[in-house]
């Protein structure tokens, strides 16, 4: 009996109980790809969607480490190797106390289609741990990373599975992870991790890529109606890697980011967020965002409320999943927002997406808009493999071209399937078709 979307979804829910984020990510893709399944009955015959929804491999492991007081701590580590039809598993590692298997699976599932959309040869995977780096010393973070890699190293490799950063994993953590991998394996395998420091095989623009890429996508989206970022009032959530470089690029392209946030609240600075100060607070001192107002007296810190209550033309959610629900979407509509472009992974709930669509707000899903990060990671792999190193300008140009291509693919696919302007359908159908075609050619594996 050929599979149907409804039966596959019901099976996913039954086989993966207690994983609502994973169910949500699967549902969003399955709801979009109906038109492609109708045109290609061979996908159902080969049970492609059932196979895509089942990870190729899931690894769960103990991560014991010692804190600065000499106490033993135990965390849980994960790597979900979801789909390798297009290339080695590729996707970040998240260190956050909320991490559990369902979060890693939702992220890994999204990564399959995102990576396909880049047009580059990378499969999808994701990993992480329920470790909270907040408040830890550098030494504690190092010991945690070393213990994490002491198990992970046997599962990864430049041709097998190539992790990178995500929430709580930036240049510092990638450095410690790489050092331990090199020590255990006695191999200088640059391509085993991306997001590395520039001193040891990292790529120019990888640090900036996700935030810059999301803003390039926003510029392309606005261009469709003859508009641009020039003069736009923008609100960004988060104040981490993606948020910081999204703010930088908005300012470079003539917009003004008036608010950003962290998990405690947000800061409103009508003069435009001072990026140098933000980087010092978040990248160097690693302190809470409300410290911003000590240095900028005209700015306001608001705790315990959503940044989406600040009126804006463009919203760039760059923090975490499901941060824009129905109430936040309604606030954005009331505040005059014309477009929401996701820098984070799945930050907008299905209810919020419906509210935005009903109000005519343009919406770009993360798997298209935030693909710049993983695209530049794939470029880092290419540079490592050829022992080459591109300039900043060259790398930024490649990123910009990649985002323009992703936008064009989403746009053209949505048109082709009779859903003009629907970036969710365009992204899901285009990514799905590329993976499905490769899976068909590989036979039953
Ligand atoms: N790094 C990358 O290259 C890519 C990242 N992404 C996605 O972008 C998003 C941000 O990642 P990144 O910038 O790397 O992570 P960071 O750890 O650098 O920053 C995360 C930011 O989001 C905030 N945040 C996290 N959880 C919550 C929460 N529950 N409520 C409110 N704020 C929260 C953090 O605040 P606080 O410090 O208070 O926790 C912090 O400001 C994630 O969804 C990630 O999956 C997508 C593609 C690539
Ligand atoms: O750069 C990478 O490999 C992964 C980036 C990532 O985790 C993501 O796109 O969500």
From TrEMBL:
GO molecular function per UniProt: glutamate dehydrogenase (NADP+) activity; nucleotide binding
Keywords, sorted A to Z: NAD, Nucleotide-binding, Oxidoreductase
Binding residue positions for substrate: 90, 111, 114, 165, 377
SUPFAM superfamilies: Aminoacid dehydrogenase-like, N-terminal domain, NAD(P)-binding Rossmann-fold domains
Function: Catalyzes the reversible oxidative deamination of glutamate to alpha-ketoglutarate and ammonia.
GO cellular component, one term: cytosol
Gene3D superfamilies according to UniProt: Glutamate Dehydrogenase, chain A, domain 3, Leucine Dehydrogenase, chain A, domain 1, NAD(P)-binding Rossmann-like Domain
Domain of life of the source: Bacteria
Family in the record: Belongs to the Glu/Leu/Phe/Val dehydrogenases family.
Binding-site residues, NAD(+): 210, 241
The protein, known as: Glutamate dehydrogenase
NCBIfam families, per database record: PRK09414.1
């Amino acid at each position: 009996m050929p599979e149907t979307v409804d039966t596959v979804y019901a099976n996913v829910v039954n086989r993966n109980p207690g994983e609502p984020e994973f169910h949500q990510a699967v549902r969003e893709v399955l709801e979009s790809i109906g038109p492609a399944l109708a045109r290609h009955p061979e996908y159902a015959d080969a049970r492609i969607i059932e196979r895509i929804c089942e990870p190729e491999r899931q690894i769960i492991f103990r991560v014991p480490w010692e804190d600065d007081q000499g106490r033993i701590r135990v965390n849980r580590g994960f790597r979900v190797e979801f789909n390798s039809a297009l290339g080695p598993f590729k996707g970040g590692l998240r260190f956050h106390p909320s991490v559990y298997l369902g979060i890693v699976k939702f992220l890994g599932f999204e990564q399959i289609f995102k990576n396909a959309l880049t047009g580059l040869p990378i499969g999808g995977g994701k990993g992480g741990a329920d470790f909270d780096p907040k408040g830890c010393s550098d030494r504690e973070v190092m010991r945690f990373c070393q213990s994490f890699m002491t198990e992970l190293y046997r599962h990864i490799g430049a041709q097998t599975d190539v992790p990178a950063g995500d929430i709580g994993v930036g240049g510092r953590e990638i450095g410690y992870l790489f050092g331990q991998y090199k020590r255990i394996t006695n191999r200088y395998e640059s391509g085993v991790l991306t997001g590395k420091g520039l001193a040891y095989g990292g790529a120019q623009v990888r640090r900036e890529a996700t935030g810059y890429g999301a803003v390039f996508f926003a510029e392309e989206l606005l261009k469709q109606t003859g508009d641009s970022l020039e003069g736009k009032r923008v609100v960004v959530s988060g104040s981490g890697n993606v948020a910081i470089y999204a703010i930088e690029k908005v300012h470079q392209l003539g917009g003004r980011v008036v608010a950003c946030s962290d998990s405690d609240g947000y800061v409103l600075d009508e003069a435009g967020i001072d990026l140098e100060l933000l980087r010092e607070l978040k990248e160097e001192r690693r302190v809470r965002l409300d410290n911003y107002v000590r240095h900028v007296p005209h700015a306001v810190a608001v705790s315990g409320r959503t940044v989406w209550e600040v009126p804006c033309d463009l919203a760039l959610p760059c923090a975490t999943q499901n941060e824009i629900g129905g109430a936040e979407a309604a606030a954005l509509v009331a505040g005059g927002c014309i477009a929401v472009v996701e820098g984070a992974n799945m930050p907008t709930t299905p209810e919020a997406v419906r509210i935005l669509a009903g109000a005519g707000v343009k919406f770009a899903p993360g798997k298209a808009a935030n693909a710049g990060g993983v695209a530049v990671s794939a470029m880092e792999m290419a540079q490592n493999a050829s022992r080459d190193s591109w300039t900043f300008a060259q790398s930024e140009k490649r990123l910009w071209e990649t985002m323009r291509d992703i936008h064009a693919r989403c746009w053209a696919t949505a048109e082709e399937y009779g859903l003009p302007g629907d970036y969710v359908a365009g992204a899901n159908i285009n990514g799905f078709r590329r993976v499905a075609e490769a899976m068909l050619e590989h036979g039953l594996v």
